[in-house]
């Protein structure tokens, strides 16, 4: 999937060759993946959703990953943004908005009726609100495997 261009930025589907740049874009995450881990996960991530990148001169400028989720409460799937990151040098140039627009189009094409950001860190709050998102409650998470050190989660 290729998207529009703005300021020389092209939005396109991610491929295995993008793994190192995507890992660098996600390096600020609480548990950032390595380039190898990204390469291993890209195909699976795109199978039930989409992974789109903003290609600029040099390293990638940004990435958005979406997952299509079917729930019992909704008649149609929900598109959940699981990652959204723009490189520090490329922020405030409209790249995040371009990624969001391309992701929303991919979600509509997949039959989704709702777009949710699961990876909304506090620094993304203003971006989300300025792009039409409204808060929809709090999320809780729980590990499904034993933690290191032998503690049981269950």
Automatic annotation (TrEMBL):
Keywords from the UniProt entry: Acyltransferase, Transferase
One Pfam family here: Acetyltransf_1
Domain N-acetyltransferase intervals: 9-151
EC top class, as a word: transferase
A GO term, aspect molecular function: acyltransferase activity
EC numbers for this chain: 2.3.-.-
Domain of life, per lineage: Bacteria
Record's protein name: GNAT family N-acetyltransferase
